[in-house]
Specification:
By secondary structure, the chain is mainly α. Helices cover about 65% and strands about 5% of the residues. A two-stranded antiparallel sheet has the order 1-2. Helix 5 packs parallel to helix 8. The longest helix has about 40 residues.
Length: about 190
C-alpha cells in the first residue's frame, strides 16, 4: 500500500504484457491473421519448390519488421505521453483499462519480436537444411512477419479511437468525482 498526498493506493494485481495481450479469439482471428496465414502458406510452398528464394527474402523481411517495431514502440511512447493523470481519472470513471488503447501496438511489437527470432533462425539455414525444418521455420517466419506488418492497421484503428476519446474527454471536467468502482483507492479526506 502506498500513500500519495493523503490518497491511499494499493496494488491492483499483477499487470504485465501478457495480461495486456488478453484478446478475445475474435480479435485474434481477424483479417490480419488470415493474410498472415496466407503468407505463411505461400512461404511453405516456396520453401518446398525454391528453398534458396525463401532464405534470400530474410534481409528484406527483417528490415521491414525492424521498421514496424521501431515505429510501434515510438507510437506507444507518444500515446502514453498523452495519458496524463486527469485523463487517466476520466478513463477509470468510464470503467476502461488504459492499456486497452495500446494493446494492439503491444501485440504488433510482440509478434515483431517473435518474427525477428524466427527470421534469425531462417537466416542461419541454407538450401541444404533438411526440408522439414526449413518448411516449418519458413512458414512461422512468414506468418509472424506478415502478421506484424498487417496488425499495424489494427493499431492505427485503435489510435483513431483514442484520439476521439481524448476529444470527448475535453467535455468532462478534469476533477472527476470518485466512483464506487474505485474499491482499491480511498478518497482524499
Amino acid at each position: 500500500m502506498l500513500s500519495l498526498g493523503g490518497v491511499v493506493v494499493s496494488g491492483s494485481g499483477k499487470k504485465n504484457l501478457w495480461s495486456a495481450l488478453d484478446f478475445r479469439l475474435s480479435e485474434i482471428l481477424a483479417y490480419d491473421f488470415y493474410l498472415a496465414l496466407g503468407g505463411g502458406l505461400a512461404a511453405l510452398a516456396t520453401a518446398v519448390s525454391a528453398p534458396a528464394a525463401v532464405i534470400r527474402a530474410v534481409p528484406v523481411a527483417a528490415g521491414l519488421v525492424g521498421v514496424v517495431v521501431g515505429a510501434v514502440v515510438a507510437g506507444i511512447a507518444v500515446q502514453t505521453a498523452f495519458m496524463d493523470q486527469a485523463f487517466l481519472r476520466k478513463i477509470r470513471t468510464i470503467g476502461r483499462d488504459p492499456t486497452r488503447y495500446i494493446a494492439p501496438f503491444l501485440f504488433t511489437a510482440t509478434t515483431g519480436v517473435f518474427s525477428m527470432l524466427s527470421l534469425l533462425v531462417l537466416g542461419a539455414m541454407s538450401a541444404e537444411t533438411p526440408q522439414v525444418a526449413l518448411i516449418v521455420v519458413a512458414f512461422m517466419a512468414a506468418l509472424l512477419t506478415i502478421w506484424t506488418m498487417t496488425s499495424l492497421l489494427q493499431g492505427l484503428s485503435t489510435l483513431v479511437q483514442f484520439i476521439h476519446l481524448k476529444t470527448d474527454a475535453l467535455d468532462v471536467p478534469d476533477d472527476v468525482s470518485w466512483s464506487a468502482r474505485d474499491s482499491n483507492r480511498q478518497p482524499p479526506s
